[in-house]
Amino acid sequence: MPNGKGNPPKRRRSLVWEHMKIDEPSIDMATCIHCSNPLTAKSIGGTSHLIRHITKCLKRKGLTEELDQFLTKTKGTNYSRE
């Protein structure tokens, strides 16, 4: 779908999007699929805050296996289980 400037929208490549649902019609917000917490999802904002949220959310929910898989996939980043 074009973004109004004739260009297709950017593909979201971060693994964090497996844990978020983009809110329609506003693509500036996303909702965590684990806790339903709304978070900003502006393209200029980056995904660091979303990754931090998912890491804390999965720990809080006791989903350690899913957290381990997420952290393994995001290996090489500055995010830890602390």
From TrEMBL:
SMART domains with a match to the protein in the record: ZnF_BED (SM00614)
Residue ranges of every copy of the BED-type domain listed in the record: 14-56
InterPro entries assigned: Cuticle_assoc_protein (IPR053031), Znf_BED (IPR003656), Znf_C2H2_sf (IPR036236)
One annotated Gene Ontology cellular component of this protein: nucleus
Keywords: Metal-binding, Zinc, Zinc-finger
Organism superkingdom: Eukaryota
GO biological process: regulation of transcription by RNA polymerase II
A GO molecular-function descriptor: sequence-specific double-stranded DNA binding
Cited SUPFAM superfamilies: beta-beta-alpha zinc fingers (SSF57667)
Descriptive protein name: BED-type domain-containing protein
Organism listed in the record: Oryza brachyantha (malo sina)
